[in-house]
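Hi support team,

I submitted a single chain yesterday and got back a structure, but I'm not sure I'm reading the token output correctly. Could someone confirm the output below corresponds to the sequence I sent? I've pasted both exactly as they appear in my results page.

Thanks,
R.
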Amino acid sequence: MMNQHFPSPIDARPFTPAAATLWEPVWNLRVSLTPCERDLLDTWSLRRLNFVRTFGAGGLVMPTHHSRLSHVLGVLALAAHFQPGNEALRLAALLHDVGHGPFSHSLESLPDFDHHQAGHELILGPEIGIILQRHGHDPAHIVALTGSKPPNPVRTENDLLHLDHLDFFVRDPFACGWHTPPPAELLTRLTLDGPNVATDLVTAEHLVERILFENRLFVAPIKVAAEAILERVVTLASQKGIFDTEPHTIATMTDRDLLARLSGANDPEIEALLERLLHRPHTLHVRRVVAGEALLEGALVVTFSKPYLGQPLVDGQPVSQVSERAASMLAEARTLVGTFVVESGT
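Hi R., thanks for writing in. Yes, this is the structure output for that exact sequence:
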């Protein structure tokens, strides 16, 4: 029998299969789940996300190895915190990343695969769609919300901060040991201004510090090396017909599924690359490619072209317009984009 009297907000109930309460540990939130949310969390489409790393191939070599499901639950908790009675928004939060393939964004380089489109098809499909309809929700409306139509706190099309990005701007640094101020304390200072996150100037600058850190994580040499190798391995496997790259198939796979398929390919080139990725990533060197540089044929190259810069509002304005410090940090984040080449060390 679990002791329920230790000094913690966790009790026994959240660990039972029929739990009606979600405990979100990063944001220190307790969420009473709706019957629809509870049913969706029992589906393989959502359970699969527990076996998909949010930070892609970087999750193999960095502290940021939490799952896509943990991020999804974080966004659900935030949506429930700000708009507890908005069931459609909560469902959009829960389902917004359901179409991610193994290693999340690492497989976006495959032709014809778009995790947004894959997610839309899953939400409209028989497993999820029937549950939504049974609980009185229109799957097409949830799809629209996950695509920012109309703009909403989970997803917008502007350059301002919404709940999806808020979660990973805090969750990824938290995984690397950045716990001050605690996320739960930050949350007490946040509000919604329309669909966007708003706060005071000091807290907004704290968030921008994390935004800059997040973008630095994306170009950390070990992550760049891991992404380049995994992208090359997946491309080779696709070209050689080793696994099916049809979008629906990809959206049903886990990280383990992909690694097992690749490891069992009996292909020396793929085996050598996987051995380097999984056993000796520390022996890889990464450098930024300079403009006009000619690279050797077959070079391991990866491009980081899209910084994540969704900034909070302060008094109705983007923080970069009221804080030179915030503007400087965001400008630095923009300089991190570029193309990198991975070179073998010893």
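A quick pointer for reading it: Residues 17-220+307-339 form a domain with the Hypothetical protein af1432 fold (CATH 1.10.3210.10). Let us know if anything else looks off.

Best,
Support desk
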